[in-house]
Amino acid sequence: MTETKVWVDTPFKLISSSKSGAELGKEPKGAQKLGCEMTIVHNNILCGLNAGSPKDKLEFANFAYAWAMVLKEHHCVEEERVFPLINSLAVPGLMDGDVAEHQEFHDGFEVYLEYTDKLRGGNEELDGDKLTSIIDSFGPVLREHLEHEIDTPLALEKYSDKTDEFPMTIILHDKTFDGGMWQHFPPILWRKDWWRFSGCDFTSQPQKLPFA
What we know:
By secondary structure, this protein is mainly alpha-helical. The protein has helices at about 30-50, 55-90, 95-105, 105-120, 130-150, 150-155, 175-180, 190-195. Helix 2 runs antiparallel to helix 4 (about 105-120) and helix 3 packs antiparallel against helix 5. The chain is globular and about 55 Å long. The chain starts with about 30 loop residues before the first helix and ends in a 17-residue tail after the last helix.
């Protein structure tokens, strides 16, 4: 019998970049490239959600809470900065549907955030069944949203004449500034006891999970 290795690509299936028209050996451009890059970010989120609940409870609680804060910040940046910019450059209200989708999993996600915060603070014991139940309350809707939202940047292709300024929000970080001392911005907290629950190492290569 072939042994099935556990990794972070289940239970919430990762999104294929082919959705954005990506092909090996062919570099995507314009809206397609933006869609592919969003796919990578969203798959990072799914990998974090797919990480199981191992025996090392405190370290995992810190990992899970850090993941939740990444997702929270991701959506705050979208709603407060990225989406308003796209709306102003393309069509007013274009991104409103994506903001509405954020609200569909908001309550369950907030329960997850609160629970993992209690775990890392030692105010509650890790209960695998409870954690799974919380994830199931918002995970499927989040997964659907993360794939559906990729359609939005793909739709920007028709507004390419209006969105030429958008990359300016991404490309203004000078890695040579101050002699290159900020080239690794944003900073990474080197908490290896937390990050070992991630599906990949610091060279972005898949790694064996501690609970597999």
